[in-house]
Amino acid sequence: MRMKHGPLRLIATLFAAGALVLAGSVVPASAAGGPNLASGKTATVSGVSDVYGAGNLNDGNAGTYWESTNNAFPQWAQIDLGAATSIDQVVLKLPPATAWATRTQTLSVLTGTTSPPATTTVASAGYAFNPATGNTVTINFTATSARYVRINVTGNTGWPAAQISEFEVYGASGPVDTVAPSAPSNLAYTQPASGQIRLTWSASTDNVGVTGYDVYANGALRGSVGAGVLTYTDTQPGTATVAYYVRAKDAAGNVSGNSNTVTRTGTPGGDTQNPSAPSNLAYTQPASGQIRLAWGASTDNVGVTGYDVYANNALRGSVGAGVLTYTDTQPDSAT
């Protein structure tokens, strides 16, 4: 048994803890809503000391524990819940034996639907693990949807490493969002310049709210945009044939089905010739607040795929190759 559990260290850490004012919401352990969601899930850590590995974090045995690499703060431990889940409580334990002196570990809780989780759900604070209360700390927070739950440890008054025997996660008592957004619709593309493919689509809907869109090219994720963005411009060589589809996602990690697929067919040798500029642009005002544009068709060595309409140098909208009109809405006072 290491000296870190010995009686001399017990006296020192009890004295230090007596003068410490702790932050955070620490209450007696209780399941916030059902079973321990971390049980049987994948645990990963930043580092390991000796035989005190990540598997001890959620093996259901408070007598075993994880210990990080010594003298190398910060250190972290993470649970992968397998899918986005509504959670509102983390319970941390050390072995309950009185040989484990009272110690304070300084840590924060991070959550998210991707790894590493980016949201600091509970800010860094000191938490006292006391054998008199089972060496257990419970951290409550506002319910959030997360797949990955991480504690980031920056200090330990009892030993120069992070130490946790059980890392438990509990779900919020409220309902979990399991409804996926609708699939994006009306996916189309234009080629505003050589090597550029500009995608546009219609917005998805969701019972809670769409948080963004993922764009796929030939089955591989190509990029992502936020909820309010309905365009994406890709760069591909003119010889490449590329098939695109788009998926919507929400905060709970639910993902929609695929949009319709559009395919840009490459041309041998690559198309490097721009279309001619549209001609004879003119406008009428069919009603108050409406401006109807009309123009003459462009020509191209391969084929025009569409037109982009700009107002005061900002993209206003796009139409397909066979459409030579666009109606904009502007206040009558606007130039």
TrEMBL record:
Swiss-Prot/TrEMBL keywords: Signal
InterPro entries: BG_Antigen-Binding_Lectin, FA58C, FN3_sf, Galactose-bd-like_sf, Ig-like_fold
Region spans: Disordered: 254-279
F5/8 type C domain mapped to chain residues: 15-172
Keyword Signal annotated: yes
Signal peptide start and end residues: 1-31
Biased composition (Polar residues): 255-279
One Pfam family here: F5_F8_type_C_2
UniProt entry tagged with the keyword Ribosomal protein: no
A Gene Ontology BP annotation from the UniProt entry: carbohydrate metabolic process
PANTHER family tied to this protein: F5_8 TYPE C DOMAIN-CONTAINING PROTEIN (PTHR45713:SF6), FTP DOMAIN-CONTAINING PROTEIN (PTHR45713)
Name of the protein in its database record: F5/8 type C domain-containing protein
Organism encoding this protein: Streptosporangium subroseum
